[in-house]
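call fold(seq) -> tokens
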Amino acid sequence: MHKVTLIPGDGIGPSITEAAVNVLAASGVKIDWDHQLAGMAAVEKFGTPIPEETLESLRQNRVALKGPLTTPVGGGYRSVNVALRQEFDLYANVRPAISFEGTNALYKDVNIVMIRENTEGLYSGIEHFITADGVNIAAESTALITRSGSEKIIRYAFEYARNNKRKKVTLVHKANILKCTTGMFLEIGRAISRMYPEIEFADKIIDACAMQMVMNPGAFDVIVTTNLFGDILSDLAAGLVGGLGLTAGANLGRNAAIFEAVHGSAPDIAGKNLANPTALIMASVMLLDYLGEYQAGRRVETAVREVIRAGKFVTADLNRQAHVGTREMAEAIVRQLQ
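ret:
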């Protein structure tokens, strides 16, 4: 029996979380879910987007499945996702973008894993206004890139490539302009790459990389980059395979992990049984792998891919003629597992 913190999230979060939990139950893996709140749901009940009860659950269980969260606008609230990553030093954000047969995506054979540094860079939260005569006349944000943080994420990317029999790691940077921050990131990447001679290493400037991903995504295998660049490129990669509704993510540290859908909370369709549950179900596959339940993970992934390939019981973003909602798509995946 695995003990896992469950954070349903906001907006469409509860409905896609219910779908994922039902699919995991059908996989046969025994999970004791510890239900907790974060985001707007937590603000409404506790007055804070990250209650101490939720943090304590994560400290105890060290692993969580999380729906999308809404960070309240104003009021001095930090991004809930960023705060959780920093609290538990979840330094590696891993987002596979792998094509699904049966979608209308432009490409049919994309297989890219984006590995993003998750706690530093421009998301470090070091920013302030410059004021004059009581008016904010400018704003400054500091991109904090440390040697230790860079070494950890780049080494993780190469270890991931080695352990998953991938052949190439591409480091993405802007060292031609940001010479100190991403220049150091590139320097460290080149040094570490020499420790993995069996893995091809390349580096790309961020803007050129974005163009080349659109023109020739097959040229990429594992991509490692800094926080902001990874945030942007991972959404681009999701677009190559059919959108954020299909894309899962893992936030990994040495002693904790949070698995999530990478899309937002979509409050405009909350409670309408419209949301595609695939992203959170695929995040559940990553959770199963993390728990050592590899066989169950492959069964769930195969079931998801077969339902999408068939195209009959999928949400409208995948097939406008299907007239199927969140619950019905999850039920089809459960039937495929049985």
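The first helix runs from residue 13 to 26.
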